[in-house]
Amino acid sequence: TASTINGGYLNFMGNEFGHPEWIDFPREGNGWSYKYARRQWDLVDRKDLKYELLNAFDNAMVHLISGVYNFQSLPVVKLWEKDDDQVLAYMRGDLVFVFNFNPSKAFTGYGVLAPAGEYDVVLSTDNPEFGGYGNIDETVSHLTQNDPLFAPSGREWLRLYLPPRSAQVLRLRRAQPEKKTRATKTKKAE
User: Fold this and answer.
1) Closest Cα to residue 169, out of 136, 133, 134, 131?
2) Phi, psi angle pair for 126, to nearest 5°
3) What is the pTM of this model?
4) pLDDT band, very low/low/confident/very high, at 184 (cuts 50, 70, 90)
5) Is 58 within 8 Å of 16 (Cβ atoms)?
6) Which of 44, 116, 137, 151 would suit a FRET pair with 15, their CA atoms being 20 to 30 Å apart?
């Protein structure tokens, strides 16, 4: 939600740690009770629950996007969407957001078409700090792989390991220099 904002985002109604059971505003049917119409901020401090991990991720995500100047004005560019795999990827500025919504299938070497270059993982839900299993090596830089079919668009294959129900954010560290081809030389000569 935060990565697609356009000036603000609402993280509400079961999508955050403040509402663990359900939301029920005071009404005649519940005796005008406020019991389930309040945030339960103490949950983040309970060690028997996992809300502290969600809070850590939320803080890391907000820190990441707030560190990008004028993030909300950057266009969201869809890079990949494959319903069968339940994988979605898009780019905003130099950040690539990759989601594997598949509940059970991990993908090794999964290809996403992205601008040519070198990418570093800057945030991963698979990080143990956020309750993940640590299967993604965040120290590895990912170089895109050329495909002549997509060369005219400047996109190449960004191959990643995608555990089930995970997301990762990569930053384009270095764009690859334009390759000299016959078409490039001809264009420059014109």
Assistant:
1) 136
2) -80, 0
3) 0.81
4) very low
5) yes
6) 137
